Amino acid sequence: MPINFTVVPVEDNEAEKSTLEGVFREEHDENIPPQRQYSVDDTPRESSPFINIIDQDQENYYDGKNMALFEEEMESNPMVSSLLNKLANYTNLTQGVTEHEEYEEGVTKVRVKGPQMGTFIGVYLPCMQNILGVILFLRLTWIVGTAGILESFAVVVMCCTCTMLTAISMSAIATNGVVPAGGSYYMISRSLGPEFGGAVGLCFYLGTTFAGSMYILGTIEILLTYIVPNAAVFVAETKEDESVALLNNMRVYGTCCLALMALVVFVGVKYVNKLSLVFLACVVLSIMAIYAGVIKTAIEPPNFPICLLGNRSLQNHNFEKCMKTEERNNQTHTTKLWDLFCDSPYLNATCDDYFIRNNVTEIQGIPGLLSGVIKDNLWSEYGPSGMLVEKKDQLSVPAKDKSRNINLPYVFNDISTFFTLIVGIYFPSVTGIMAGSNRSGDLRDAQRSIPTGTILAIATTSFLYMTCVVLFGACIEGVVLRDKFGDSVKKNLVIGTLAWPSPWVIVIGSFFSCCGAGLQSLTGAPRLLQAIARDGIVPFLQVFGHGKANGEPTWALLMTAGICEIGILIASLDEVAPILSMFFLMCYLFVNLACAVQTLLGTPNWRPRFKFYHWTLSFLGMSLCLSLMFICSWYYALVAMCIAGCIYKYIEYRGAEKEWGDGIRGLSLNAARYALIRLEEAPPHTKNWRPQLLVLLKLDSDLGVKHPRLLSLTTQLKAGKGLTIVSSVLEGTYMSLGAQAKTAEQNVKAAMHSERTKGFCHVVASSNLRDGFSHLIQSAGLGGMKHNTVLMAWPGAWKQAQDTYPWKNFIETVRETTSAHQALLVAKNIDRFPSNQDRLGEGTIDVWWIVHDGGLLMLLPFLLRQHKVWRKCKMRIFSVAQMDDNSIQMKKDLQMFLYQLRLNAEVEVVEMHGSDISAFTYEKTLVMEQRSQMLKQMQLSRNEREREIQSITDESRSSIKRKSLPGGESGAPNKLQVPTLSITMDTQEDEAQLIHDRNTKSHANLNNKAAVSPEHHMTWTKDKLIAERNRNRAEPNMGVKDLFNLKPEWGSLNQSNVRRMHTAVKLNEVVVNKSQGAQLVLLNMPGPPKNKGGDENYMEFLEVLMDGLDRVLLVRGGGREVITIYS
């Protein structure tokens, strides 16, 4: 470690007291060059008492100065020498420990001794031990006898090819970088992502656990059938109860054996590792004894006679001599065989009909390698449960009574046999190829050892299985091969009859082999579960990540023992084998898929050292695994796939988000790129059009979402379909607001998550808000996945704002969306919109279809009603008819149009007759233009502004006089109140509110009020106002000039503004009358004026149009049809 010194000045009188404590300071950060502090300057003097001490470090100090150009980056970017030193000292982590790239800060690293295991000890022998096991010793002879040599050889070749292709794919993945402990789970999860990794990892865990059950059941079968058959707890009183008693004995002894093995694993894995070599030696000796016995049969076949009655094989453990009668002292005596078929030992006894008609024959069960029995064993002998084991070429006279007495000592099938069952039972014998990769953390060079050891182990065991199939068929009689439990050879293990020097070599060897394999399963499965739990991708499994102080997975061991007990309670080796075959096949399938995906994607990080792979081999292996799953058992395959699918969806929904650079993500990126390129070739058809939203959010001072209900509306409108981009703008430069932008983005994402809005979030920093929103409207999205609709909230406080930026930004946004041919949705009173938890039980969604802009007005209510919030609301469509329109025909046409659009809605046509412009409209326009004039004057200097305000005040007072009669405001409720002027010179905000209409009531109540002309002192009662309107309609020759006599200043108004205000007032009056109680009102949004000088008037028009309505959604189409009547 480099040493850093701090030179402290010492007074002469304190020199004796000074020590070196505090002078030497150790630099803890190896990545930062040493920095020294000196008492006087940065260069040590020759007279310094420490000059000789720092000479040793001086060279390093000046070496650091050679890299002074990069010294500011040392904290984030270490020197290459430091990086290489860390990589050189890197050791694979022990199983279950957090991986190096996910190492949590604050945890002290413990240096472990580097692993020393090589290819032979670390990979080859463990794979051999796991592959060669219970199926070889207990079921392979029965498989050969039942399926025949040819079909058995085909099964072995098919299964071994599957594992070899999987091993090639696994080798490519294992050599593509460092593989910490975790084995196949680590490889799959890091290649296919946490969802696939968790699903397949749990399937592999279940397969390993059920493998433990199978090995324990094999151990108990060997113990109770061949070693100590008298140790059975349950003894069958009748022949019918033998199978039930056997299953119960398996359950009892299996549970005890499981408890004992679990205790051994709990006490210490080191004992299991020490015993593993002993168990492996037993396997090797057993296989050597088999081959020695095969060779011996060619020279001197062993003596294992079997007894045949006709062509039926007999169980010969209850009699010694294969004959009906025997001559003793010139007298004929019956044998024990006679007693089994007859009701008395006398010659005149009543015997079984088949026993009487057929003779007894004794043949050799092991005729030998050169006997030619191989020709008889080439073909299969499938049959139902209870079928007798017969020698086909033996003479036999059928009995008259075809019924079979189960109490007779025949050998028969205990289960129905067929090809797919044989595949399911055999496949577990080739599993175990992951044993080497599971020990990757203990290997000296995992990238070299895993491919070599695994492929050599598979090649060796494949050769052993293929030769055993042929040799068993060539040496052993067919009826003996089909005798699963060796009843015809005096309860000997069938494969043991072939062994040399004694059958007990195979019995003892297979017993310890099954014990060792069971212990290995109970050791590996809990650690696999612990690794999955510590990854945190499955929340409910996190408890199994804990263990003892030394890291042993105690809780995972208990879970494993519980699942293993389920397999033991099944109690049948033949039924457990297909279950674990499913889980292993699914694991192998996804290993091949991972390799194929990574190869086809060609990601830059895909650089395996193992070069003998190809994506076609991986696809072939994947297809073979899938085929074998359905060949073994189609219903087990479906169950296993459903389990994996449920786990996948659970992790996707509730699991922790992990970014492991997996292949599925890369595949998604490639698919997205391909789809985007295809989308950009042509614009979407009207049938495929849906609103792709760009949501413009406003943030508060704490960078939180100001209007979260805007996100609720987005969710209700989209229902997770299509594109949603939620964006906002921060005013400033990105260099200064980078951190705030990230914080704001996180806040927006949190709000999106709480409101269940699925989409993308983007917060940008811009010099001003106008440019920021403009850039978002232009550039948001990618390729064909761009937004076509902009959603924003209505700037409700635009009148009270101190500046004009809010409403100017709003109008510019409207103009830009129109120019970009994008639709625009503006929500007024957005905070009053329902949340996603609300349920609107009744009400209507009212659509006011005034102008046709592509049909978006009719599409939006349909989309909203797909969401549960709006589902019970009814849809109403209002259309406005003018004087020249036929409203009856118009309603019929609209109903037909909706029918062709497949939309259910009530239709109503509202007639708006031509009428004169009311006094209220003129007053409203006058106040609006006076306010606009005041806003323009806000740009003048202070003095000029004060003079202008005074002149406007004088002019206003001369034209608008306040009513000063007693009770003028409170005592005359039926009089029209002219908007008053408030002049305040204190602040700029009050000046902006110089002329306002705060006291102006809604024009919906205009008919209930009277108007007062300050010039003529006339009172406009309700009756007089109606009479005046009727008189105006009756006298068309009377112009508006007479009305101007009432208000001389009305004559100077912009008539275009008056007409627009008239439209807004009249339309609002109709909308409020019809839709004031609606849950939502959708209105056509008029476009902004082409002349920017009237922007503030445009805001006033919209305000009047929406006055008196609770929830309003202004809709402006994008200039294209979005809904069609065609299919």
Describe the structure.
With 1127 residues, the chain is α/β, with parallel strands linked by helices. The chain contains 34 helices and 19 strands. The strands form five sheets. The chain has a ten-stranded mixed beta sheet with strand order 10-9-8-11-12-19-18-13-14-15, sandwiched between helices. The chain is elongated. Residues 1-64, 90-114, 959-1022 and 1031-1046 have low confidence and may be disordered. It catalyses: K(+)(in) + chloride(in) = K(+)(out) + chloride(out).
Give a short overview.
It is found in: Cell membrane. With about 1150 residues, this protein is an alpha/beta fold. It is built from 34 helices and 19 strands.
| Order of the strands making up the biggest sheet | 10-9-8-11-12-19-18-13-14-15
Query: What is the radius of gyration?
Result: 46 Å
Sheet/helix structural class: alpha/beta
Determine the number of helices (DSSP H or I, runs of at least 4 residues). Answer: 34
Helix percent reads 40-55%
What number is the mean pLDDT? 78
What's the β-strand tally? 19
Low-confidence stretches: 1-64, 90-114, 959-1022, 1031-1046
What would the keywords be for this entry?
single chain, 1127 residues, ten-stranded mixed beta sheet, three-stranded antiparallel beta sheet, elongated, disordered N terminus
